[in-house]
Structures are given as C-alpha cells and as structure tokens.
Design goal:
The complex is a heterodimer of chains A (599) and B (839). By secondary structure, chain A is of the alpha/beta class. Chain A has helices at residues 12-26, 40-50, 62-65, 142-146, 162-166, 233-236, 269-274, 315-332, 337-348, 372-389, 400-405, 446-461, 513-526, 535-551, 557-573, 581-598, and strands spanning 73-95, 98-101, 118-129, 172-173, 201-203, 221-227, 248-255, 290-298, 353-355, 358-360, 365-368, 393-397, 411-413, 418-420, 430-435, 463-467, 472-476, 479-484, 496-499. Chain A is elongated and about 85 Å long. Among the domains of chain B are: 119-134 and 152-223, 2-Layer Sandwich (mini-chromosome maintenance (MCM) complex, chain A, domain 1), CATH 3.30.1640; 241-386, Nucleic acid-binding proteins (OB fold (Dihydrolipoamide Acetyltransferase, E2P)), CATH 2.40.50.140; 764-826. Chain B contains 27 helices and 25 strands. In chain B, helix 3 (96-105) runs antiparallel to helix 4 (119-132), helix 4 (119-132) packs across helix 9 (192-210) and helix 25 (766-786) packs across helix 27. Classes of the chains: A alpha/beta (599), B alpha/beta (839).
C-alpha cells in the first residue's frame, strides 16, 4: 500500500481509523464490509508477520501493565479459559454526515445521536488466563518486554517456583470487528438503511481475574476478538485459528483505553435483570484488563522456546541430541536405563488421533517401586527435570485429603455465569505428574470418588468431564501423565508400568543452558513429525503381534496397541518418519526388559 | 398520552431503525417491552384515558380514536407523520372482497415505516388466514364458497374455543401461516412487531364479532416456525426478527411485578389522577395537579395499591450439549417472559422458544447520558414449548399404557426421514448391516452384537387383564476375560440407547441404583430422588463390573429385572416406581480369567436367582485362535497407522442407527401369529426333551419357562428390526439360535458337554449332583465299615485316605466334608471338629 506508513505500535487506532476512512471513500455504506474487514487486518498482519515487527510489540504482563499506555499495540499470550459468548455493539455509526467506527473500542469517542444511523456488529468475548503451569523458562521475561527490539530473548532463569509461573493469568479479550466507520463523509440524505449488521462476530474480551488476584502477579485478560466464525471466517483467518477452549493463543491488539467504565449500577429496573451478563461480575478494568484483539495465532510448544531456531531436524543432529538427553535422563533416574528409555518415549507422546472414544498415541507412564526414601531422592529431581524440559507442567500430590477436597473438573457457576477452572483444565500438551506415594488408606467422600473417576477417565480416555450442572460435557485433552507410586496405581491405570530400579543415588551433573535449549527444541519439534509405516513393515509387525499372542495368551489389545505407540515414538525419537525393523525390535526388547522387572 | 398514538413511531418498531432506537433511548427496550406488553397483555388499557375500555384493540390508540371499533376505515394516522398505525380498520366485510376493496378506495395506503409493507395488505392477509385456513385436506380454492358453508376454518374454531374457556391466547402454527400465505409468513418473521400487532388487532375484531361482550384480550402466540436457529448462530441480522431456538433453561429470576399503569394523588387536595400508562419504560409523574382549583406544583405522590402491575420474569437459556461444537462452551441467552409465560419452564427443562430477538443498549451509569456502544440482547418470548429430554426419543411401544398424557409431538420424524428408514428396513441384509454398524471398531463378537441389537429394539410388553404383566425388556449379561472390550460395548450401547444410564458396580450402592429419600434443604420436606434404574426407565441401564457390586445392591435388582418396579418403604414414603429398564451388565470372572473347568456360577460369584433373570448370558472368552489374532493385529495396526475412516465401509452412522431404533420402538409392534406360536412351542419342547437321556435316570433341565419368555421377546425384537408387523418363522429360528449360542457358552456343563439350565438356576449341574450323591454313598459305606456305633471317632484325614483307597481316585477334602455334612444331617454320624463319630 503506497499510503503513509502508520504508526502501528503507538497509535494502532489511528491506523484503523484512517484505513476505515480510506475504505469508506470507495464504498458508500459500511455494511458492505460485511465480510468483516476493510483492509486493516491485512495491514496489521502484514506489518506484524511479513515485516516481522512482531517481536517489537511489548508483551502484556503484570509488570508491563503499569507502563503500557492504553491504545497502543501489545501482545498477550494465554490459554482460553472460558468463552463468554458474543457481544453486540455499534460497529459503525453516522456522526452527522460522517461515518465513524467503534471497532476495537469499548466507548465511542463521539456521542452517538439518538437518531444516528448505526450498524451493529458482533464480537466474541474470551476469558484468557496465562497458560496453566507455564514454566519460567517459557515465559517472556519482563526484560524482554522493556527491550522492545529484543522482544523474545528472555533471561534464562531456571527452575522458578511454579507458583510464580502460575500466577500470571490474564484474560485477553480480543476484539475483531469488521468495518470501523471512521470519519467519513456520507452522502447526504441517504435513507437510514436497514441496520446493516455485520455477521462476523467480533470477539470482545475484557479481562478480569477470577481468583483473588495474587499480588499483581497474575494477569487475566478479557479478550475481545472480532472473530469471523461463520461466513467471513475464511477471509482472513486460517482454519487453525478457530478458537477453542483450552488452546493457547497469542493475541496482538490494544488494551482498552477507558478505565472509567463501570458496570451500570443499575437504578433502572430492567437492564438490571439482564445484567446477568458475564461482565457484571468482573473486577474492574485495572485488575482484569480488557483487550481488543487485531490478530491472533495459535501457539504450539515450539513457540515457547526462547530462541526459536527454525532448523530442519537433521537425522544425525537429532540422534546426537537424543543420546545426550537419554544420558541425562539416565543419570537423573539413578542409572536406570530402562526407565530412562520409557521416560523419553513418554515425553514425546501425544494423542495423534481419536477413534471413537479411543485416544491413540498417548503413553502414560507409571513408575512404581517409589518408596519413601526413593521419592525423597528422585522425586524432586524428576520433577525439576520435567519442568526444565516441558513448557507446561503440573504436579499433583495425591492424598486422600486432596481427592476429597480438590476441585479437579472445571465447573460452571451460574451465579456469576463463569466457568470456574479446575486442576484438570489444562492446555493441550501439558505434562502432569501425579505423586501417589503419599496416598494413604482413608475414606473417600463423594467428591473424592468423583475426582478419582475423573483422573481415571483422564488416563484412560484423555477426556475431562466439565460440569455444567444440568449436564456434563466431555472435553478432550492431551495431557502426558506420569504417575509415581509404590505399587501399581489403581486410580490411574497408566499405559506402561515400569518398576523403578535406581543403582546410584545422585549422579546427575550440571546441565548447560545450551544443552537444555537443544533438548527443549528436540522435544517440541520431534513430537510434531509425521509418521507412517511401510506395507512390508506392517506385515512384519502384524506377524510379530500374532506370534506374540500365540505365545502368550495374556497379551491383550492394549498391550499390542502400546507396542505400536512405543514403536512410533521410538522412530520419532530418532527423527525418522517411518518405522524401521530396528526400532521395532528395540521396542520389543524394551518391553521384554520391562516385563522381566514386573515378575 | 396522545403522543403514543402510534406504537410504531416511538419504538424501534421498524427493523431498520432498530439499532438507532436503542441508542437514542436508553430505556427503549424496556419501554418497548412494556409497550408491547401493554398492547399484548392488556387490551383494556388503551392509551386514551378518557374512554372506558371496551375490548379495544391494542392499537386503537390514536388520541381521536373512536371508542367503537366497528366503524370502518377510521384512520387515525395524522396527515403529517408517516402513517403507520394499523388503526381500527376493524370492520370486516362479510365477503373477502371487502378486504380487497380497501386499497381501492383509500388513495394513500398505510405502510409500515421504512418498508413497502402495506398495513392494509397485511391486515387483509391475516383476516383471510384466520378465516379461511383449513387443514391441508380441505383447503382448495374451488370449493371455497362451498366449504364456507360446511366447515369452519381451523382458527375460527380455535377462536371459539378460546372464547369459551375464556382463554387469553391463541396459538397459531407458523406452518399453517406459511401454507396459507408464504408472503405473510415472511413478513411476520421479518417484521414481527408490526405484523403481530396487526394480528392481534384482527383477532380482537373477530372475537368481538363472535361474542361482542367478550371482555378479555386475546393474544396471538406464534409457534413452530419453519426454521429454527441455534443460539450460536444468532447474529445482528436477526435483531427484531422472529426466531425460534432450542435450549435448556438454567435460571429463572423471581417474578418481577412490572408497573403498567400508575395512579397519582395530589397531596394537597387529594385529587387522584387518571391512570398514567408506562411510556418508554417510564412513568411520568405529573408535575402539576390537574384540578382547576388546586393546581399545586410537585404535589403528586404515587398510590401503590391502585397501580396495575403485570408479571415479568427473566429466564436464561443455555445451549444443549449436542449443539456445542468441539472445544466450545455453551452459549446462553436471556428470555423475557410475560404474564402467562411466567414460570412456564423451570431450570433443567429443555424448551423450544419462539420469540423476537432484541437488543438493548447499555448505559454507562444510571445518571450519565453517554451510552456504551454495547448492546445486551434478549429474546422477547412469544411461545414456549417443552421438548423431550433424551436423545433417542423415549416414548415407545414397550409401554403398555400408551394413553397416559404423553405428548404426541415428542417423536417427530419428517416424512423424508421415515421414507429413508423404511427403505433401509427393506434391504434383505438389514439385520447384518445393523450388526456391523453396532460398535464397528469392536471386531468379532457378532453374536453378542446381535443380542445387543435385540436388546436395543426390545420386545413387546404385555399386560394381562388379570394384572399380570410380562416385560418386553431384554436383559443381557456379558461375562468374560479382561480386555475383551466388554466395557467398550457397554459404553457404546450407553451412548446409543434411550435414557441410557451407565454405572459401575463398584461405585454403585443400592440406593444409588434404585431411589432414595432425602430432605429437601429448603422446605424440609422429604423427597424421593430417583436412582440410576429409575432414571433409565424405558431405557437401558448399563452396569459395569457387575460382580464387584455389593450383594445388597444386587439384591435390589431382583425386583427390577422381573417386576420392573422399584419399591421403596422408608421415612414415611411408600412408593413403587416404574423401572422398565433393560439391564446390560458385564462381569469379570472371579479369578480374573475364566476357568473353563468351573461353571459360570463358580466363575462369577453371582447368585443363581439373579443370573436366571438375564435373557442372554454371553461368555466372551479369549480363545487362542490365530485367525482372530491376525484380525486383531490388523485392526490395531490400522488404528495406529491408517486413516481409521477408510477401514469401515457400509456402516450406518450413529444418528441413522439411533433414528432407526427409535422409529422402530415407537411405531412397530410385531405380533405373534398362530403358526409362529406353534413353532415356538415345538422348539421349546425340543429343547426340554434334550435333557432326557434315554436309559439314564439323570434328568437335566435344558430350558425353563423363563427361556420361553426370552424367546418370545427375542423374536419380537428381531421382527421389529425388519419393521415387520408379524413375527415370522425365521425370527423364531434366529431367536433360538441366539439363545442357544448364549446358552452353550454359559450353561454348558463342562463335565458332560450338555446344556444344563440347572447350572444357571441352581448353580449345580445335574452331573455334579450325581457325583455328590456317589460320594455320599461311598463315604457312608466306609463309615459303616470302619466305625462302630458308639465306638471311637475317626479323624477326617484318615477317612480321606480310606476313601481314596477304596475308590481308587483322587478325592478332595472339601468334597468329603460335604458328604459327611450330608450324612450328619441325616443323623447317621456326628461331627466334632475334625473327628467323625457314628451316632
């Protein structure tokens, strides 16, 4: 576009307005922007991604909240924790003879006359929180924020207490509207046309925090997204960006400017009643910022790497990293080679398809023989290692009391019309350690039974039941589960049970930051590789399965299925995309070793 | 007051100015709701305050309106403003031409503001509709005149009914409107406020013609729109249109009294004003006393007890789970209910709502004039209909008393669908196809699936005049090795079945299954809460891990499975609840793997009394068979590496399957013919006869009357699968085959290889009984030989040795103990601990 370069960073609304004006020059009525955009979106997308100004946009964090000016461009990363439905607003209106737009704003700058010609547009409200269990290394540090040019480099802090990671929640409300009427001369005497309502939904999100906000550490955000859910959806949104619950997004947009907006402290009867709307129970703007979103994109594990190197995974390099990582895991696990192998496969697993209710590809791991002493030595270490490797991790110390009191499943609270989060509302690809070693005999109450069932369902089906009071809804998840227990866990029937046999107490050496980064990159990248099987290999596998079953009748479908999952992960761990005989045999051998231990 | 002469002018009545009006007037929505309400609710409150209300239309509001609506063509719209009001063009000429004549002699037709919809046209169209509409069969134009004489229009009849019962609303099926006049339908959906207003007007005119003194106002309630949207798809273009959505009520506000008319009194002179109606959601308090003598300023006070209020309620509606896309949370929408609709639904109800979608602007503060650019949306409710709860419609033929107030609309398939289903049923291999479609990802187990299919379709329940009843539900028990996908089958059936309830035996208590009594926390009354079995009345109750269930809980099942009721007697409540449910249970063998040398009873520790109540008992054993293994291997490999879709062809999708089953359950009631009955009898006798071995005293029971009943149910279910009204011979043969397959697996006496129902009914097979008798005899002989009466006692172990020697075979100590115990009960010996003594 040959026009003037807009100051996207500090005055995005200006750019919105002037593009709107420009667009209105050629079109007589903003309703023709039905498809949602008059070009501002493209401009921003172009500016952010094609011209890679993306990293210059400051990140919204509790710290940066203080100095970020309203109405400037900011980024926010978070998980969609709840969806608050759609919001209708006056998208464009006629101020005198001039069209103006309210898009990306909560309050119109100019009073809208009672008789004004208006267009109603729609946006979506999303309540976003920081990714639960986000580890410190995956966060964008505050230094990075201040240093705008270096946006993504963050200090390399290791092992920060998880609590800190958890407490930056924010709700982003990203608003994507369609055409914003900016000051634009309209032909006089034009009939007030039918409300041209744009069908695109804009997501208006205002942010608010659900929980009592801990010390400004957690930033929830209400994101208002103009979201073209329906017709105009394909216009500028790639299919993957369809917003789903529990997915992680980065939103680029502006912070709502007007902190004075209070909810109507209704004297008027009726509106009071209707105010059962989500915003009513929100804390004020300062606590939960409202955020209007221009552009959003889905994030995967790679996006949380600090120096996101886009490297084609080369086989020998991958192999090298694999060896190193395996060595490290072996050391951490007290030289237990078998457990380390399983651990590696486990860290690489993800649900890659679902057949009916079956989740294919999951590999939950249950390390048994964790007595009190072993836990004290290895439990913590293991926890730290996982934290350092995976972007989002959680740890649940399972006790009878915990089961009886914790709220694991998210629950809809109709009083405030919000989904109250539970410990099992996790982002896709989260890692969850369940420490069962502290579980002692006791009585479960009804909540405890329910929680145990939830955990069981999570392990078996990778599904969490959300409680909507009048009905329950199964939400699919993809969580890697690691169970530490003394004997085989019955609450959490994991796919693989490996008795833990450490031979040395503490032989883990210090790890360099580079190594850690390489491993993180390895785990995030290799997981995403495609995988297939040649037909000859398929024949071999089938024959092997049949032979194994003939030899041992106790093998059942789950066992065979596990082998295939493991073989897939095994070849992925070498960076290969199709199964080879060698890897297949490695898997069989590994499982044989494991079985021997079980005896 | 005169100012509100045209309702359309002061409200967002015409769709194009709708967005503006909410902004222009912060109270517009409430105001308009109020006004609408006034129009709809109270005919008796016309705005002209000086005329005593004589059933005037809600629109006869012009200041100069004449109180008698029967004058024709009194047009009140002033010359200056856009003529809007459908005024009292009420007089209806007896002939339909009169309506057409309207436009002719009126030079300037009245239009709805901003549109080209002529009020007169709409008026006439509605008149024609109400007068002329007849059900499909009789509405042909040719005979119009003729029919006029003979039949009454559907709605004329309905109006008369309403008048008779002094009702206050007339339900109008939108399908009828469409059928009669698609154009009117379109206008009605597009501009509901205006068209409904005219509708009411026309209606009232008709009413007053039929019964001039009728006082009440009757409103039109439109329902059953041609298309209903989902909550998710409501968008700005729907504002001010008539929409129909389905959902579940999640919250009801308390009832809010809304003021309609206020009366003020002057504090100085005590003079009362005339009723002041609500305008734009507000009542304007007169600033000056109207009495000539008084004229004091700001002296008016509201007289609460003389004001008039109406009921209002705000209800929140939420999407039902089936409408929510993956990864979404349910949307909600507010409903505004008035008058009769208040409390029409309660939280948890699934309803279908017809109403007008409206938006209302939000003010920043009570006192500020600035408006947020936001809107709140709600649906002004016109009609509410409760819909059925379950996925597969529950109403079905297994019910004996069809008459009890059931809504016939509940099961509704359109004809196209029915045609499709019927087409399907005609296919020769429908039985096989259905079998294949059932849990397609579980391979093999075809016979089990066939059994489950029968369970889904069910037999006919029967109630004799004597009061005895026979259940139509088929109960199935699956017993088998772990890892044979029993649980998956259960899960699948649970998803498919009407009112399926899934419980796990371990987590279920007796009360959880049946019913329990609790105290209501609010009122302190004792209330009966239904358990799983009662909730799955007319459905299938799936119980996993049946063997892990406590005996107490299991014993509750006895009553349910045969009598189909649950009886409760506690805490002052004695009740018998219907639990017409099929039970699908699965159990693991007690020793984790099935021991083929033991009987079913020994393998699963279930009481024989309960076991015999299952129609079919399947043993799902893991057999060492290379063919099966290969299929399994192929299946698993394809699960992991191929597109799973590609491997299943020719399989019905789950919704077709569900529809098929529910349609069959509802509409097909197969009967037994004499020939088939004969066949059943013969087959049954045949089976019984198999128990008699020629030349052997051993009597084996191979079938019991319970099996005969099962056979009848199974054959009925099989006929139903084919949508056949008569059970045929092949159904009976198949039923025999199914039963036999199940019997062979579970009731085979492994010692002899014959079917023995005693195994199921008593837990002891005939051959076992004979063996025990022989044992007792041998023991008796030995004791006679070794021990003298009154002589020294003998230790059991010694006895065991003796026995082994004399019989020359291995003898178990437990068997010996049993034998001695039998002898002791005969008084032949006495036992003291380990020693045996002759008495």
């Amino acid at each position: 576009m040959g026009g003037p370069q807009y100051d996207f960073l500090s005055n995005p609304l200006g750019a919105v307005r002037s593009t709107f004006e420009k667009a209105m020059a050629s079109v007589s009525d903003p309703s023709s922007f039905n498809s949602g955009d008059w070009g501002a979106m493209d401009l921003f997308t172009n500016f952010l991604f094609d011209q890679s100004h993306h990293f210059q946009v400051p990140v919204l964090t509790p710290a940066s909240m203080r100095w970020i000016k309203p109405n400037t461009l900011v980024r926010f990363r978070g998980m969609i924790q709840d969806m608050l439905g759609n919001e209708f607003y006056v998208g464009a209106y006629k101020d005198g003879a001039v069209w103006r737009t309210n898009k990306f704003m909560d309050v119109s700058q100019f009073p809208i006359g009672p008789s004004a010609d208006t267009r109603i547009w729609e946006r979506r409200l999303l309540y976003c929180v920081p990714v639960p269990g986000l580890n410190s290394w995956a966060q964008i540090s505050s230094e990075a924020v201040t240093d705008q040019c270096m946006g993504w480099t963050s200090e390399q802090r290791e092992k920060r207490p998880r609590a800190e990671a958890e407490c930056s929640d924010m709700t982003v409300s990203s608003e994507e509207d369609q055409g914003s009427p900016s000051t634009k001369k309209m032909r006089e005497g034009e009939q007030p046309s039918l409300a041209s309502q744009s069908r695109e939904s804009e997501i208006a999100s205002s942010s608010f925090s659900l929980a009592p906000v801990p010390e400004g550490n957690s930033l929830h955000c209400l994101v208002k997204v103009r979201f073209c859910l329906r017709r105009s959806y394909e216009v500028y949104d790639s299919p993957e960006s369809e917003l789903k619950l529990n997915e992680i997004f980065e939103f680029v947009g502006i912070l709502a400017s007007d902190p004075e907006i209070q909810e109507d402290n209704v004297d008027n009867d009726l509106s009071n009643e209707f105010c059962e709307d989500p915003l009513r129970h929100f804390p004020p703007n300062k606590v939960v910022p409202r955020f209007h979103c221009f552009v959003h994109r889905k994030l995967a594990a790679q996006d949380f790497l600090q120096n996101n190197p886009i490297i084609e995974p080369k086989l020998d390099m991958v192999k090298g990293i694999r060896e190193a990582l395996l060595r490290h895991l072996t050391a951490v696990l007290g030289n237990d080679d078998v457990a380390a192998h399983f651990m590696l496969l486990h860290l690489l697993s993800k649900v890659h398809s679902r057949v009916d209710s079956l989740a294919v590809g999951k590999l939950s791991l249950n390390l048994t023989c964790f007595s009190k002493e072993i836990v004290s030595i290895f439990g913590n270490q293991l926890n730290v290692v996982v934290k350092n490797l995976m972007p989002f991790t959680h740890c649940i110390p399972l006790t009878v009391e915990y089961l009886n009191t914790a709220s694991l499943a998210p629950k809809k609270n109709y009083d405030i019309n919000r989904l109250e989060t539970g410990a099992l509302q996790l982002a896709e690809g989260s890692h969850l350690i369940v420490d069962e070693t502290k579980l002692e005999a006791g009585t479960l109450n009804s909540l405890g039974v329910e929680n145990a069932r939830l955990l069981n369902n999570l392990v078996e089906w990778q599904k969490v039941e959300y409680d909507f009071k009048y009905y329950k809804m199964d939400m699919t998840t993809d969580v890697q589960l690691l169970v530490l227990s003394e004997g085989k866990s019955n609450i959490l029937p994991a796919d693989v049970i490996v008795p833990f046999r450490p031979s040395a107490a503490n032989c883990s050496e210090a790890v360099t930051a580079e190594a850690l980064e390489a491993w993180r990159w390895y785990l995030a990248t290799v997981r995403q590789l495609p995988h297939s099987i040649e037909s000859e290999m398929q024949q071999v596998v089938e024959n092997d399965l049949v032979a194994a079953r003939q030899a041992d009748r106790s093998l059942n479908a789950q066992d065979l299925s596990r082998w295939l999952t493991m073989s897939r992960l095994m070849s992925l761990s070498f960076g290969e995309t199709s199964l080879s005989l060698e890897h297949w045999q490695m898997v069989k051998e590994l499982d044989r070793l494991r079985k021997e231990r079980l005896k | 007051m005169a100012s509100d002469s045209s309702p359309i002018n002061n409200g967002p009545s015409s769709p194009d100015d709708s967005p503006s009006s909410p902004i222009g007037n912060t109270f517009s929505s409430p105001g308009d709701a109020a006004r609408r309400n006034r129009r709809r609710g109270r005919s008796s409150t016309p705005s002209a305050f000086d005329t005593p209300p004589v059933h005037r239309s809600r629109f006869a509001a012009a200041a100069d309106a004449t109180p008698t609506p029967s004058r024709s063509r009194q047009r009140s719209g002033g010359a200056g403003r856009p003529p809007v009001t459908p005024t009292s063009t009420d007089d209806i000429p007896a002939s339909s031409e009169g309506g057409d004549g309207f436009d002719m002699d009126d030079a300037r037709p009245t239009f709805v503001w901003g549109t080209n919809i002529s009020v007169e046209d709409v008026n006439d169209a509605i008149q024609r509709f109400l007068r002329d509409f007849r059900e499909a069969s009789s509405s042909q134009n040719d005979d119009d005149m003729l029919q006029h004489l003979h039949t009454e229009g559907k709605y004329e009849k309905l109006i008369k009914q309403v008048i008779e019962v002094e009702g206050d609303s007339l339900d109008v099926d939108a399908h009828d409107v469409f059928e009669h006049d698609p154009d009117l339908y379109t206008k009605m959906v597009r501009y509901p406020l205006e068209v409904l207003a005219i509708f009411d007007l026309v209606l009232m005119n008709m009413v007053s013609r039929i019964k001039p003194m009728f006082e009440k106002h009757i409103q039109t309630r439109i329902f059953n729109l041609k298309s209903s949207t989902t909550m998710r798809n409501l968008n700005p273009t729907d504002i001010e249109r008539m929409v129909s959505i389905k959902g579940m009520i999640i919250r009801c506000s308390s009832i809010i009294p809304e003021i309609r008319e206020a009366i003020f009194r002057c504090l100085v002179c005590g003079n009362c004003t005339d009723p002041v109606a609500v305008e734009r959601g507000r009542i304007t308090e007169p600033t000056i006393c109207l009495r000539e003598e008084c004229q004091s300023r700001n002296s008016m006070t509201l007289l609460h007890n003389r004001c008039r209020f109406t009921d209002k309620q705000i209800v929140r509606l939420q999407e039902t789970p089936d409408e929510i896309p993956e990864g979404g949370t349910p949307h909600t929408v507010s409903l505004l209910m008035h008058d009769k609709l208040v409390d029409a639904g309660k939280p948890g109800d699934r309803v279908e709502v017809t109403g007008i979608y409206r938006a209302m602007s939000v003010r920043i503060g009570a006192t500020q004039r600035t408006v947020k650019s936001l809107f709140k949306t709600y649906i002004d409710c016109l009609h509410i209909k409760k819909t059925d709860k379950s996925r597969m419609l529950v109403d079905d033929a297994m019910d004996i008393d069809n008459s009890e107030g059931r809504n016939p609309e509940e099961v509704h398939f359109d004809e196209e669908r029915v045609g499709q289903l019927k087409e399907l049923s005609k296919q020769p291999d429908i039985y096989e196809r259905l079998t294949k479609s059932l849990a397609p990802n579980i391979w093999e187990l075809d016979d089990v699936k066939k059994g489950l299919l029968c369970q889904l379709f069910g037999g006919n329940a029967l109630k004799l005049a004597s009061g005895a009843s026979f259940r139509g539900d088929i109960n199935i028990l699956l017993v088998g090795d772990p890892g044979t996908s029993k649980s998956q089958l259960l899960q699948y059936i649970h998803k498919l079945s009407p009112r399926g309830i899934y419980t796990s035996g371990r987590g279920s208590s007796a009360v959880g299954l049946t019913a329990y009594v609790t105290k209501d926390p609010e009122t302190g009354e004792t209330v009966l809460e239904s358990g799983a079995l009662v909730l799955s009345d007319r459905g299938i109750c799936c119980i996993d891990e049946f063997d892990k269930m406590s005996d107490n809980a299991r014993s509750m099942l006895h009553e349910v499975m045969e009598q189909q009721t649950v009886s409760i007697a506690k805490a002052g409540i004695i009740a018998s609840l219907n639990a017409r449910t099929s039970v699908l249970a699965c159990a693991n063998p007690s020793g984790s793997r099935y021991n083929p040398r033991l009987s079913v009873i020994d393998n699963i520790h279930l009481p024989p009394t309960l076991l015999s109540r299952f129609d079919l008992i399947y043993l799902i054993l893991d057999k060492a068979d290379e063919q099966t293994d290969r299929r399994l291997a192929k299946h698993i490999v394809s699960l992991h590496f191929e597109n799973p879709e590609s491997m299943e062809q020719d399989v019905m999708d789950i919704s077709t399957l569900t529809d098929y089953v529910s349609y069959a359950r509802k509409h097909i009631h197969p009967q037994l013919s004499d020939e088939v009955a004969e066949e059943l009898t013969r087959g049954y006798v045949d089976i019984r006869r198999r128990g008699n071995f020629p030349g052997s005293s051993k009597k084996v029971i191979t079938a019991t009357p319970r099996q005969l009943e099962s056979l009848i149910r199974l054959s009925e279910a099989l006929a139903r699968i084919r949508f056949a009204e008569w059970v045929e011979r092949r159904d009976v043969m198949e039923a025999f085959r199914l039963l036999e397959v199940a019997m062979q697996q579970s009731a085979t006496d492994h010692a002899t290889g014959t079917i023995d129902m005693d195994l199921i009914t008593t837990g002891v097979s005939a051959s076992e009984r004979m063996r025990r008798e022989a044992m007792v005899q041998a023991t008796r002989n030995i004791i006679m030989e070794k021990i003298q009466i009154g002589g020294p006692s003998m230790r059991l172990l010694e006895l065991l040795e003796e026995l082994k020697q004399s019989t020359g075979s291995e003898v178990q100590l437990t068997d010996l103990k049993n034998a001695v115990a039998t002898l002791a009960s005969e008084g032949f010996v006495t036992m003291h601990g380990e020693s045996v003594k002759r008495s």
